[in-house]
Write a structure and sequence with these properties.
0% of the residues lie in helices and 52% in strands. The protein has no helices and eleven strands. Strands 2, 4, 5, 6, 9, 10 and 11 form a seven-stranded mixed sheet that branches. Strands 1-3-8-7 form a four-stranded antiparallel sheet, with no helix packed on it. The chain is globular. 29% of the residues are buried.
């Protein structure tokens, strides 16, 4: 059964950076597309990025394009999200996901 644990969230000032990690287990991580999604207070779940198994294809939502970068290390079963130039509207719980499964998430708060 797929299991994922996100980490790396926290409180950061506008313009700051964070790097999220997601350690996966219970499935063949290296053969699956992986996704980052987020949920802001009172809002629906939002897809923000995806990456193919070989890291040759990445896609981003317009809201984060040019600021966020997703990557993966298949040897470590780990997915990453580098977030730069963070904005208050990026405040949300961030989850990694595969299929319909996601972890418990990590809170990112962008505030001065």
């Amino acid at each position: 059964q797929a299991h994922m644990v996100e980490s790396g969230g926290g409180l950061v000032q506008p313009g700051g950076s964070l790097r999220l990690s997601c350690v996966a287990s219970g499935f063949s991580f290296s053969i699956y597309y992986m996704y980052w999604v987020r949920q802001a207070p009172g809002k629906e779940l939002e897809w923000i990025s995806e990456i193919n198994p070989s890291s040759t294809i990445t896609s981003y939502a317009d809201s984060v394009k040019g600021r966020f970068t997703t990557s993966r290390d298949n040897a470590k079963n780990t997915l990453y999200l580098q977030m730069n130039n963070l904005k208050p509207e990026d405040t949300a719980v961030y989850y990694c996901s595969v299929g319909s499964t996601r972890g418990l998430g990590t809170q990112v708060t962008v505030s001065s």
